[in-house]
Amino acid sequence: MSALWIAHVKVTDEARYMEYARRATGAIADHGGEFLVRGGPYEQLEGPDRPRNVVARFPSLQAAHDCYHSDAYQEALSFAKGAAERELVIVEEA
User: Fold this and answer.
1) Cα–Cα distance between 66 and 64 in angstroms, integer?
2) What are phi and psi of 87, to 5 degrees?
3) Contact call for residues 33 and 63 (beta carbons, < 8 A)
4) 78 contacts 13 by C-beta, under 8 angstroms
5) Could you report the average pLDDT of every consecutive run of 10 residues in the chain (94 residues)?
6) Does residue 39 contact residue 20 with C-beta atoms inside 8 Å?
7) Regarding beta strands 84-92 and 34-38, do their DSSP bridges make them parallel or antiparallel, or are they unpaired?
8) Domains and CATH numbers, the chain
C-alpha cells in the first residue's frame, strides 16, 4: 500500500530551508516519492499554524521510512534544523 509523507512547516530561515528543500527533493524522488502538495493556499482549522504544508506519496510505508533515514535525506535535513519549526508524519493510505 502507498503511504503519505505529511509535513507542516513554519520557515524561520528562508535561505537554509530552501537549500533543504532542494536537496530533499532528490532524496524523495530516489525513494519513489512524488509531491502532491508543496505549499499553496490552505485553511488552518486546528493546531499550530504552519504556513508551508507538503504532502508526498511513496509506494509504501517502508519506502517513506527508508527515505527519511537515508544518508541523502539526513544530509538535506541538516539544513532544515534551526531553519524551521516542523511536524512530519508518514501514514499508510487506506
Assistant:
1) 5
2) -125, 140
3) yes
4) no
5) 98 98 98 97 96 97 98 98 97 96
6) no
7) unpaired
8) 3-41+50-92 (3.30.70.100)
> Does the predicted TM-score (pTM) go above 0.70?
yes
Place of cell 530552501: 18
Q: Dig out the grid coordinates for 55 from the structure.
A: 504532502
**Beta-carbon neighbour count of residue 56 at 10 Å?**
24
Length of the chain: 94
Secondary structure letter of residue 42 according to DSSP = -
9 touches 89 (CB < 8 A): no
Q: What is the DSSP letter of 40?
A: -
Q: What is the pLDDT of residue 80?
A: 97
